[in-house]
Amino acid sequence: MRHRGLAAALLAPLSALILVAFVLPLSLLLWRAIDNAELAEALPATAPLIREWDGAGLPPVSVQRAFAAELAAASGGDAFGRLTRRANFELSGMRGLLLRTARAGAVPLAEVDPLWATPEPWLVLRQLSAPVSASYLLRAIDLSLAPDGRVVRAEDPVFLAILLRTMGISALVAALCVGLGWPLAFFIARLPPARARLWLAMAMVPFWTSVLVRTAAWFVLLAREGPVNAALLALGLTEAPVQLIFTRFAVVTAMVHMMLPFAVLANHAALSRSDPWLARAAASLGAAPLRRIWSVHLPASLPGVAAGFVTVFAVSAGFYVTPALVGGPSDQMMASAISFYVNQTVNFGMAAALALLLLALVGVSLALLWRLVPRVAR
């Protein structure tokens, strides 16, 4: 029992860290993506009345009067502002309708705007009266909830295209990093320990500066008047400056430069643990150097290859600064869309839904890779 108590005490700080830094933030993110409290916060007395309405025709006159009176009383408050933004997200034009109605006061709603004589705005309010909603999560996959509750195709389907672009760029960067990092890791693993440490330190040079500084350096290098275009012109390879900046090439190049050390470290760790006698045995049996690399070293480093790919892919999927600075409009990744909803529209629910979608897709991709390379799981 003493040993179990000691083990539990030693694990307590780690468990608390995982809870505070991982489980709790993810739980809050999930709740933010399905939270639907704007109507209840702004109109606490009217929300349950609208929720009890069956959705047929128009709400009872008593409900309409209670709604108009409470809406006028809530006008100008923070909760009222959040309600108008959320309602307008669900149905374009609802913000203006609610503002006009609140300014008019407790008068017959049809006199304020004829839309109140139609069921559509009332159905939107009925959706907002529920404590939770899948609206944000559906929008993240280019679907939406119609006022009558049907799931329909979104009018502006953009998020799946951004998600596929994010996955494609991340996979390409991960493949390039593994392809470029494996030969370097193989070279370092065959060096004496002192020289190997020096080469590993040199490989970690990109970690010595921030992502912003490294991205800015690539912006200068790839500019129309930058050193790369100057070299191409001096060598006669081009007759005019080439558009390198604000392209997919610039995004991938800069991201590979930043993520390459991860692949080098993972592959070096696997190669340095491989049994050197296997390669010597293969050589004694007449295997050529390339055959030894293909049949001995590469299979032995497969866990490092998979770990490097997984690490680079997962980190690359969340890149924001690099695509924003050196990429064009068609090169922006999911982090840019999340930033848009956080900083410009202040729609934290939609940002949380997109973040959860990205997290889920990355998790599924990593789980599939884990299954494809069973040696990593052992």
Describe this structure in words.
The chain is an all-alpha fold. The protein folds into 2 domains: 38-153, no CATH class; 159-377, MetI-like (MetI-like fold), CATH 1.10.3720.10. It is built from 21 helices and 2 strands. It has a two-stranded antiparallel ribbon with strand order 1-2. It is elongated and about 90 Å long. The protein starts with a helix and ends with a helix. The mean pLDDT is 86.
Architecture blueprint of SSEs:
Elements: H1 2-34, H2 38-42, H3 46-52, H4 61-74, H5 78-90, H6 94-104, H7 109-112, H8 119-128, H9 135-140, E1 143-145, E2 151-153, H10 159-189, H11 193-203, H12 211-222, H13 227-234, H14 248-273, H15 276-284, H16 289-300, H17 302-316, H18 321-326, H19 334-343, H20 348-372, H21 374-377
Antiparallel strand pairs: 1-2
List its salient traits.
378 residues, 2 domains, two-stranded antiparallel sheet, 21 helices, 2 strands, 72% helix, elongated
